[in-house]
Amino acid sequence: MGFKKFVAAALAAGFCMVSAVTPAKADISNVEVAVDWAEKDTDFVRFSAMGRDIDIADVYGIKITFTCADISGGVGGGLIINCDTNGWDQAEWGNDGAGKAITAVETGNADEYTVTRLLDAPVFQADNTYANFCLSHWWGGDIVITGAEFLGADGKALGAATASSGEVSAEASEGDDAKAPLPKTGLVSSLVFFGAGAVISGAGAMVVKGKKEK
């Protein structure tokens, strides 16, 4: 194989790898947040345990309440733990019968459901600098998040957040610690691969050019 063809093949393989590891972007434009301290990010709704009237080391889980007028086509997404010591730990949630790790449970109120993630050990440690649960919504109709409760070891609420006046929160009420950057996936950022590809491409061009000039 000629040197030019080798460089071209290597670059093509690199771009294929980028395509393989780049996740589909979650879209939560059809999620409304009626919990005044929860923060709606581009891809997630973040519930930070920092700054709440609880000890974060006592948190074993979270229960999130939402309404959805029509789940006939299914509804679901991911419920993620994001902190210093637990990284990016995601479990999928979905409607009854979807076969996901977490099932959206009907509360008995019209169009209202809860999703609960409860661990056997504390989710966060006392010295964590950020302590988040993040909810993503991948499929299904519009949902409105109306409540969130952090849960203790017994599965009971440590502190609850009920629906606000209905305004969508743009920012969490805590300080900057609660807004630690969220990774979009457990995989290495695609920007790293694009950057590496650019370096390889540039280096390859220089070598090829060098050969032409000789």
Describe this structure as you would to a colleague.
- The protein is 20% helix and 31% strand.
- The protein has helices spanning 3-21, 190-213; strands spanning 31-33, 39-40, 45-48, 61-67, 76-83, 87-94, 102-103, 105-106, 112-118, 131-139, 143-151, 157-161.
- It has two helices and twelve strands.
- Strand 5 (76-83) and strand 6 form a beta hairpin.
- Helix 1 (3-21) runs antiparallel to helix 2.
- The strands form two sheets. Strands 1, 4, 8, 9, 11 and 12 form a six-stranded mixed β-sheet that branches.
- The chain has 214 residues and is of the alpha+beta class.
- It is globular.
H-E string:
HEEEEEEEEEEEEH
Low-confidence stretches: 10-25, 164-214
Mean pLDDT metric: 75
What amount of the residues lies in strands? 25-35%
Largest sheet: 6 strands, mixed
Number of helices: 2
Global outline: globular
Assign the structural class, choosing from mainly alpha, mainly beta, alpha/beta, alpha+beta, or little secondary structure: alpha+beta
Helix content: 10-25%
Radius of gyration: 22 Å
Q: What is the CA-CA span between the terminal residues?
A: 20 Å
In short:
With 214 residues, the chain is α+β, with helices and mostly antiparallel strands.
List keywords for this structure.
6-stranded mixed β-sheet; alpha+beta
Write the layout of secondary structure elements.
Elements: H1 3-21, E1 31-33, E2 39-40, E3 45-48, E4 61-67, E5 76-83, E6 87-94, E7 102-103, E8 105-106, E9 112-118, E10 131-139, E11 143-151, E12 157-161, H2 190-213
Parallel strand pairs: 1-11, 6-7
Antiparallel strand pairs: 2-3, 3-10, 4-9, 4-11, 5-6, 5-10, 8-9, 11-12
Helix pairs in contact: 1-2
